[in-house]
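Please decode residue identities from the backbone states below.
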């Protein structure tokens, strides 16, 4: 099971070994900071996508 939370302008879904962050293009710096925090916790960026004004980043943590 996972947990969804809103932090600043970021919509974050945290699973056991994965994280999906969704935000808008205008919040790029907040997104970079959040991704850096998860990387420091042992996550790796698996994919990222953008469409229109939205950006999504999917991170995974290897056991």
């Amino acid at each position: 099971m996972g947990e969804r939370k809103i932090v600043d302008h970021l919509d974050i879904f945290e699973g056991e070994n994965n994280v999906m962050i969704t935000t808008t293009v205008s919040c790029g710096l907040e997104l970079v900071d959040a991704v850096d925090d998860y990387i420091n916790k042992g996550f790796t960026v698996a994919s990222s996508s953008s469409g229109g004004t939205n950006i999504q980043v999917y991170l995974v943590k290897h056991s």
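Observation: The first strand starts at residue 3 and ends at 7.
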